[in-house]
Amino acid sequence: MGAPKIATLLVLVLAGCTATPTPTPDPTPEPTPQTSYRIGVDTCTPVMGHHRPGHKPKPLPSPVLTSTPTPTPTAGVTRTFGPTVTAAQLVAAIADNSVDTIYLTPGTYRIGKLDIRTARTRPVVVRPQSSGVTFDGDSVAGVQDVFAVFDGAAYITLAGFTITDYGPLGTGVIVILNGAHHITLDALTMTGNRMTGGNDHLIYPAGHSAATHDVTISNSTLDGASGGAIHIYHDPGALNVRVLNNRITNSTWGIIAAATGATVIATGNTFSGNGYNMLAYPIATINASGNSPSDFVTTSG
């Protein structure tokens, strides 16, 4: 008879228990929108040229760069365009972080400037679907005609096509500035562009609001710049610019580094017909090895 009393007691104890309600957490507040503003090449054209009249710069300590890890490629979306694509459509595809490869079908593209301002978090490659892709600027004398501006952009590769008949008129055919990073220009042919003086360049890594860094220029033909084939200017200097296995010809300067703290690695390049193959101001560094005909770097300033 002892068991019923224990059962009755258990029922009474359980009946007297009141569950403590679990509090409902307050909803996480929405983040306050932030805006940023960058001055692009259209509103603040970089100061061009390599010289600074009357000024002999004093070497300054190189800025310390914290390396940005390269994202691990993952399977993404592929897009394909033909010569009728507009600059806006191509820039939008480059800005789409889900896209990892953009193919261009053979033909001649006359689309105007690619104004690329997206700091992607995944790499994207723009390349020909097969071969025979040419971007033609149809330049007009006295009118600035730029192929591409990477303004704070990141993790973008252009590979395997020809860029011709652009007229930079005081800047570069390709400009990389405002902290842009992990930009790769591979297997490009840049020849036959309209050049009018020492401030007209083919590829122009610059500084402005932040140091551009981790730029690779490789396996390309860079010909006929009346300024620099690769012109590194405007503080803070671009960091870790790698110039690898290119043919750099018939330019006033093959590579010129004249910005505070700029660092360049030049390896395996062939130079011919340039006024100076490589020229560095004391405020910048070019580390050269394995170049032809030599690794000699002229110093200036």
Could you give the topology of this structure?
Blueprint: H1 2-15, E1 77-81, H2 87-95, E2 99-104, E3 107-109, E4 114-116, E5 119-128, E6 133-136, E7 148-151, E8 154-159, E9 162-164, E10 172-177, E11 181-186, E12 189-190, E13 201-205, E14 213-218, E15 221-223, E16 228-232, E17 239-244, E18 247-249, E19 253-257, E20 263-267, E21 270-272, E22 276-280, E23 285-289, E24 298-299
Parallel strand pairs: 1-2, 2-5, 3-6, 4-7, 5-8, 6-9, 7-10, 8-11, 9-12, 10-13, 11-14, 12-15, 14-17, 15-18, 16-19, 17-20, 18-21, 19-22, 20-23, 22-24
Outline the structure in words.
The chain has a single domain, classed as 3 Solenoid (Pectate Lyase C-like), CATH 2.160.20.10. The protein has helices at 2-15, 87-95, and strands at residues 77-81, 99-104, 107-109, 114-116, 119-128, 133-136, 148-151, 154-159, 162-164, 172-177, 181-186, 189-190, 201-205, 213-218, 221-223, 228-232, 239-244, 247-249, 253-257, 263-267, 270-272, 276-280, 285-289, 298-299. Helix 2 links the parallel strand 1 (77-81) and strand 2. It has a nine-stranded parallel beta sheet with strand order 1-2-5-8-11-14-17-20-23, covered by helices on one side. Residues 1-68 have low confidence and may be disordered. It contains two helices and 24 strands. By secondary structure, it is mainly β. The longest helix is centred in the N-terminal third of the chain and has 14 residues, at 2-15. The N and C termini lie far apart (108 Å).
